[in-house]
Design goal:
Keywords: Membrane, Transmembrane, Transmembrane helix
Transmembrane segments: 31-52, 59-84, 104-124, 131-149
Distance between the termini: 39 Å
Strand content: under 5%
Order of helices and strands: HHHHHHHH
Helix content: over 70%
Structural class: mainly alpha
Protein name: Isoprenylcysteine carboxylmethyltransferase family protein
Number of strands: 0
């Protein structure tokens, strides 16, 4: 199976997970978010390792772009799995929990898309190979389409207060106001000694 096809399958599973959240509410389909992430991670790792083994990469690219990729991966993991209340977000089929608007979610409505794009861009720059850049473009494009669907359909049906959040917070590109709001949140957390 090609790496690009794996991405299409993974994002298809994400879409089914979302549709399930407001239609069928099937427990098996509820696992598709996790399964899709495993497929995406496995196909990315396989593509990356295959390219590095076949073509190598200079040490400077490994150090610079490797560090940048790791930073984006950390931001993505934090945004998806730690910034949100995990159990309410991923394990329960709860009816209309409130939208989360704090922290990185005050930057834009889908900050994970930003980290995801830069993660794949830095992996592509690290390998220096067109295939990894194609994976970056394909997966990032699918991700934008997926969050557009979430923004227009899923979250309006599954999160209370989402329409107000749409009016107050940019879709994908942070603004000066949203950056200040996010920075203020983390500054307050640091001053209060709370965990981030």
């Amino acid at each position: 199976m090609s790496y690009l096809a794996a991405g299409v399958i993974a994002f298809g599973m994400f879409l089914l997970y979302d549709l399930n959240s407001f239609t069928w509410k099937n427990r098996i389909l509820h696992t598709f978010f996790l399964i899709g992430n495993v497929i995406l991670l496995a196909s990315t790792a396989a593509c990356f390792v295959t390219l590095i083994r076949a073509y190598g990469a200079p040490v400077w690219r490994i150090v610079i772009f490797g560090a940048l990729a790791v930073s984006q991966a950390a931001l993505l993991i934090y945004t998806l799995f730690f910034a949100l209340p995990f159990e309410k977000t991923y394990t329960r089929l709860e009816e209309n929990p409130p939208v989360y608007t704090e922290g990185v979610y005050s930057l834009c409505r889908h900050p994970g898309v930003v980290w995801f794009f830069f993660l794949y861009l830095f992996l592509a720059l690290l390998t220096g190979q067109r295939l990894m850049m194609a994976v970056c473009i394909c997966y990032s494009g699918l991700n934008v389409l997926y969050v557009w669907f979430q923004d227009r359909v899923t979250f309006k049906r599954t999160l209370s207060g989402y329409e107000a959040y749409q009016r107050e917070t940019p879709f994908l590109i942070p603004t000066g106001k949203s950056v200040r709001k996010c920075a203020g949140y983390f500054r307050t957390m640091e001053e209060d000694g709370d965990e981030i």
